[in-house]
Specification:
The complex is a heterotrimer of chains A (269), B (304) and C (239). Helices cover 73% and strands 1% of the residues of chain A. Chain A has 269 residues and is mostly helical. Chain A has one domain. Chain B starts with a helix and ends with a helix. In chain B, helix 6 packs across helix 9 and helix 9 packs antiparallel against helix 10. The chains are: A mainly alpha (269), B mainly alpha (304), C mainly alpha (239). At the B-C interface, helix 3, helix 6, helix 7, helix 9 and helix 10 of B face helix 3, helix 4, helix 5, strand 2 and helix 6 of C.
């Protein structure tokens, strides 16, 4: 599925605002969940997933921007790359960083991403002008997604707990792939000449909410986190995301019909 | 473990994997996913709007890995609360199929809406009729993959946790499905309007068949066709992958010593060599049976 | 704070092994004959799927086999060989059934458009390429190339996993398996995507002119994986 056209994508919301939203929202969500779980109780763990959703929306926006140039291969590859880099950086950051873990994870992700971006342009000669920035963004967004969802599952980013409850149990695999698809699916699903930024990002919110529900399912068996509230808020966000997305589909589509024949010849001309 | 038990479990895994492979391929054909979808995507641009579902979730490997990882996660959560394995796997597969349904919905809506300038409408009845079928197939796929992963994790004592095994087998079933059965859909079913026995001429790109035996063709018609060949061979491929990669260590059990472990590796290499020869055999037979597409220019000159 | 230099010095061998594993994965992708979307319409030689996905499917199957083997032996060569065998079985079964699809489902013989004669069987290729396509199916050379690619990928992936499992640490075995396996998956994806950007998503095998580009991807993977290896060794070694 080689995809994407060539050239920059039109954006209503400037990418810099989305970057700020992703980094700030992501880190605030992760730290707020960490401290509020201590102060107010385990049911605050859902905030971690909200942070992850900020990361996923940012990731989807970054994928949209870079994949518009045409990668030579499918959009999915870049999402898998994002989470591949993200999982390395997130485990490293949380394992050695202690309280600064998420920040360290984000920084190391930015370094890997920048490095892969520079290699892609300088060595592989892909010639995509925004490759360095986008790769940095994508790796960082992937890391925020992983850390945020892990916090939502456990209520903390203390590595001993994450290791026992997320990595050893294998739930990291679902974080990996659900986070990856939330980042790559929005642009892949909306690919086409009449793609609109807000519709794609709304799809990102909807897919992010699904990962939140999954995190809630896992959280329900962990003592440090609360599953029920996470699932409920996830369902509410999913509804907002899906109806917002459907409204934008109705706005953008040529026609939304219950059923019908194909457009006639006259119509097509 | 008794070698006989090992073989029995392996046979069960192989059978489950065969079903998973077949349903995976048919699921991707109903929704039109992965590489053949590029033609469905191209068609409106070439003035051929259609009523075929466009399930551009992602490539098949990631989307199947997602289903299986979600199923494995939910099942693993339920098992840890003490639920029975059969119930846990079934509920895991239901959750996975539901979530896959939302992915199928957003991709059809999104891809069609992004083709406004080619006047491709969004048909809600296509969505309503296809998504339950997609979810049904994805339930079967996820459930079977979970059976394979669960047997590996518990009976065969594989060290990887259930969600990770499900994730990896999901990637593999998607890779197998998009490499084998999809060809039958992409190269034959989509282009039944051109003569059988050749690849798609680039000039015909986008000119997919849009009319069915009755009415306008949709994805469910496609799965009916692919169920005759593409689906079953995909099942065989994935079943063989799971079975053969386990068979070599089940027969030559490496826990009895490193020497037997090496024998299992050699057995694997022999299997691969047999497959290379088999492929060569088919290649020769096909060339002989179908003949060449054009004449050899040098020979033609000599004859003249 | 952990003793960064000390851990790195103790485990320098494993940093090198992980890097080497990543480089092997990156190199292996160049062998896997994938035609991308056109191949699914029998419009290009190779398997009709994406590079990353097929390489990952094969390599991760190898990882499953290697993971099982790692549990019963610490013989490095045997673990790596079984990983390679698992991946080779997956990819050759897939290509074999792919050939069934092309020959019986679509009705076209395997043919390459990049070379006139198959370098292995010396068969004429161009006459069997149907009109308007760039070859289809898997001629013997592509099949053999794919087997080599799958084998190298499984070998490299297992090497990464083996090295991660061997780092000195204070973890219980299930914890170590969990972190090492997901790390190996991460390294695998990074090193499967880099070469697929290098070859633009499609390649016929080692006879394809694009194959000559592999030093670029190998170099990129060397740098990227080296950094990832340091992160991995520090993360696991510090626990």
């Amino acid at each position: 599925m080689s995809a994407g056209g060539s050239g920059a994508a039109a954006e209503a919301i400037p990418q810099n605002n989305i970057i700020a939203f992703g980094v700030a929202g992501g880190l605030i969500g992760i730290y707020a969940a960490y401290f509020l779980v201590d102060i107010a109780g385990q049911y605050m763990s859902f905030i971690g997933a909200l942070g992850a959703i900020c990361g996923m929306i940012w990731g989807a926006a970054a994928v949209r921007r870079v994949a518009s140039y045409g990668l030579g291969t499918g959009v999915p590859s870049i999402g898998m790359l994002a989470l591949g880099m993200g999982v390395l950086a997130a485990t490293f950051g949380l394992a050695v960083g202690g309280i600064a873990g998420p920040v360290l994870a984000v920084i190391s992700a930015a370094i890997i991403g920048l490095m892969v971006g520079i290699l892609a342009n300088k060595v592989l000669k892909m010639g995509i002008p925004i490759m360095e920035v986008s790769m940095t963004e994508i790796a960082t967004a992937g890391t925020i997604t992983i850390v945020g969802l892990a916090v939502a599952m456990t209520g903390t980013f203390d590595f001993a707990v994450i290791l026992e409850q997320v990595i050893t149990t294998g739930y990291i695999a679902v974080i990996f792939i659900a986070g990856g698809l939330a980042i790559l699916h929005p642009f892949n699903a909306n690919l086409g000449p009449d793609e609109k930024q807000d519709r794609t990002l709304m799809c990102g919110l909807e897919k992010g909410a699904i990962t939140m529900i999954i995190a809630g399912i896992v959280a329900s068996v962990n003592e440090g986190a609360s599953g029920a509230l996470t699932i409920l808020i996830g369902l509410a966000l999913w509804y907002i995301g899906f109806s917002g997305y459907y409204d934008r589909v109705k706005r953008d589509a040529y026609d939304v019909v219950g059923s019908g024949l194909l457009p006639s010849k006259e119509e097509l001309e | 473990m008794e070698p006989l038990t090992g073989m029995g479990v392996l046979a069960l895994m192989g059978a489950a994997a065969t079903i998973a492979g077949a349903s995976e391929d048919l699921e991707s054909d109903v929704g039109s996913q992965s590489n053949p979808n590029s033609q469905v995507q191209l068609a409106p641009q070439m003035m051929y709007p259609h009523r075929i579902h466009s399930k551009a979730v992602s490539g098949e490997p990631p989307s199947n890995a997602l289903m299986c990882a979600i199923g494995g996660t939910t099942a693993s959560v339920l098992v840890s609360t003490g639920a029975s394995a059969a119930l846990a796997l079934a509920i895991g597969a239901i959750v996975a199929a539901t979530i896959h349904g939302t992915y199928a919905a957003t991709s059809y809506l999104g891809r069609s809406a992004s083709q406004k300038r080619f006047k491709q409408p969004v048909y809600l009845d296509v969505m309503r009729s296809h998504i339950p079928v997609i979810m049904g197939y994805s339930f079967i796929t996820t459930f079977c993959i979970l059976v394979v992963s669960y047997l590996m994790a518990t009976v065969l004592a594989h060290p990887f946790p259930l969600p990770l095994l499900a994730f990896i087998w999901g990637i593999t079933v998607g890779a197998v499905g998009s490499s084998t059965g999809d060809v039958h859909y992409g190269a034959e079913r989509q282009f039944q309007n051109v003569e059988y026995g050749s690849g798609l001429n680039a000039a015909n790109s986008g000119n997919i068949v849009r009319k069915a035996e009755s009415g306008l063709r949709n994805g469910i018609d496609n799965s009916w066709f692919c169920a005759k060949f593409g689906g079953p061979v995909t099942g065989l491929a994935f079943g063989m992958t799971v079975f053969l990669s386990g068979w070599i260590t089940a027969v030559f059990d490496p826990s009895r010593g490193d020497a037997i472990g090496w024998v299992s590796v050699i057995a694997g290499v022999i299997i691969v060599l047999i497959l290379i020869l088999w492929n060569r055999n088919i290649e020769v037979a096909a060339r002989k049976a179908y003949g060449t597409y054009k004449e050899d220019e040098n020979e033609a000159e000599v004859a003249a | 704070m952990i003793d960064i230099a000390g851990i790195l010095m103790d485990n320098i061998l494993y940093v090198i092994l992980i890097t080497l594993g990543g480089v092997l994965i990156s190199w292996s992708v160049h062998f896997v004959p994938v035609g991308g979307a056109p191949a699914a319409m029998a419009q290009a030689t190779g398997i009709g799927t994406g590079t990353v996905q097929l390489a990952a499917g094969a390599g991760l199957t190898g990882l499953i086999t290697a993971g099982a083997m790692m549990q019963i032996t610490d013989n490095m060569a045997l673990v790596l060989a079984s990983g390679a065998a698992g991946a080779m079985i997956m990819i050759s079964v897939t290509m074999m059934v792919g050939t069934w699809s092309y020959v019986y489902g679509v009705g076209c013989p395997p043919a390459s458009a990049k070379v006139k004669y198959d370098p292995i069987t010396k068969d004429r290729q161009d006459l069997y390429v149907s009109q308007g396509t760039e070859g289809h199916g898997l001629p013997t050379v592509s099949f053999v190339s794919g087997v080599i690619g799958g084998g190298l990928g499984g070998f490299g992936g297992s090497m990464v996993y083996y090295a991660l499992m061997s780092i000195e640490n204070g973890l219980a075995l299930p914890d170590l398996v969990g972190i090492a396996s997901i790390f190996a998956v991460g390294v695998f994806f990074v090193n499967a995507v880099i070469p697929s950007y290098n070859i633009g998503g499609t390649i016929e095998g080692f006879h394809d002119p694009k194959f000559k580009r592999f030093p670029r991807a190998v170099l990129s993977s060397l740098v990227a994986t080296f950094f990832c290896a340091i992160l991995g060794v520090l993360a696991i070694g510090g626990l």
